[in-house]
Design brief:
Blueprint: E1 6-8, E2 21-23, E3 28-31, E4 46-51, E5 62-69, E6 80-85, E7 91-94, E8 101-104
């Protein structure tokens, strides 16, 4: 399984060109634990991958945390993402049951 780190290139205001992407790298990864209250086949298995703002284009101030559902088998796109304003040192803390994730920078 390969998860490609493709990030949008921020464009100037008023630019009507389609958004282009560049290949990058993630600055961190974390694996959310399975929910022990349900069977392994019914529990989501989330991989958190993030890129800090400092690695983005010069105008970008937001880091981004992407959530990939490894149990779904489709990792071409993230399940959802969270923007982290001024996120230069993103860190995560996961609950043991996988019910909650604390993200800060």
């Amino acid at each position: 399984m390969v998860i490609t780190a493709k990030f949008p290139i921020k464009q100037a205001k008023g630019n009507k060109e389609p958004i282009s992407f560049h290949n990058g790298r993630f600055d961190g990864l974390d694996l959310c634990p399975l929910n022990p209250a349900v069977g392994q086949d019914k529990s989501p298995l989330y991989l958190l991958a993030w890129q800090n703002a400092e690695a983005m284009t010069e105008d970008e101030e937001n880091g981004t945390v992407y959530f990939y559902d490894l149990a779904s088998g489709n990792v071409d796109r993230s399940k959802f993402m969270i923007q982290c304003p001024r996120g230069n040192e993103i860190q995560t803390l996961l609950s043991p049951e996988g019910h909650a994730v604390l993200i800060w920078s």
